Amino acid sequence: MTTVQIDWKNLGFSYVKTDLRYVSRWKDGAWDDGTLTEDNLVHISEGSTALHYGQQCFEGMKAYRCADGSINLFRPDQNAARMHRSCDRLLMPRVPTEKFIDAVRQVVLANEHFIPPYGSGGSLYLRPYVIGVGDNLGVRSAPEFLFSVFCVPVGAYFKGGLAPSNFTTSSFDRAAPHGTGAAKVGGNYAASLLPGHEAKERGFADCIYLDPLTHTKIEEVGAANFFAITRDGRFVTPRSPSILESITKYSLLDIARDRLGMQVEEGDVYIDRLDDYVEAGACGTAAVITPIGGIEHEGRFHVFHSETEVGPITRRLYDELVGIQTGDREAPAGWIVKVR
Ligand SMILES: Cc1ncc(COP(=O)(O)O)c(C=O)c1O
What we know:
By secondary structure, the protein is of the alpha+beta class. It has helices at about 50, 75-90, 95-110, 185-200, 245-260, 310-325; strands at about 20-25, 30, 35, 55-60, 60-65, 70-75, 125-135, 145-155, 165-170, 205-210, 220, 225-230, 235-240, 265, 275-285, 290-295, 300-305, 335-340.
């Protein structure tokens, strides 16, 4: 077992080799039982479809240490269900929900000493993935598949935690109108590298993608979903078939409606109507809630609440969400699965 010497309060979002990861293989129509391994290298055929044709998908989720020492998973059934949809879209076999959650549990328990302590602001990020493997050459679905889960202790994804970040729109798209935007597949992220790099070179935290058909509506914020609060206190978030359905976003939607008593809607967020909103944020497992200070679009910079201060509703949403995840606030039924 590794002796862990980690500066828990200053964790970023970078790879750390932890002790054990779960691996299971699919062959001849069935998944094997799976096992934990110390080997963090993946040995696959050079003809693997994952390498040439992008036949792969992944998930991102977290385990949280609670004040009483127990360990929470936040809505893992939703990650399993989304991975089913990603696998369906790329013609890969589904990992059954029970197997998925069991693999995640095994990895968390096997690396328990890597879970950041309660109150440190960190968590254990889990990365399940499915890749097409086995000898192959033509464009077709792989003869074999590999399902694996590894974990990494993480802190804030965007520098500054709950401090606002600025974003700029991109003229590129990460996904096509009827493409794979709603699936969590590597190709979407490969397509996002150049636009993200360009935004960061210009001093922004990341770029905002507009809808691929008309480029008039906000879709996503880098690898996170977008929400905004209207002047009359409504929680609004974009709806589109090319957006990844964020588990965090749908959780915030429920929290805004059921706990903050707000009106909520999924609809169109036009990039030339930003004056309608008094607060905005990026949300996701990694981003948690990152307040959006301002958005640059076509040479104009629009500031929401403030470039330095988090807005009051964003703060309440954050406190409620993180409180539920870390066990400090009561969770809606079924949202928390205890690992231990
Ligand atoms: C493109 C994209 N959108 C949105 C999200 C947020 O989704 P979730 O809240 O399920 O983590 C993520 C991160 O997982 C993402 O990669």
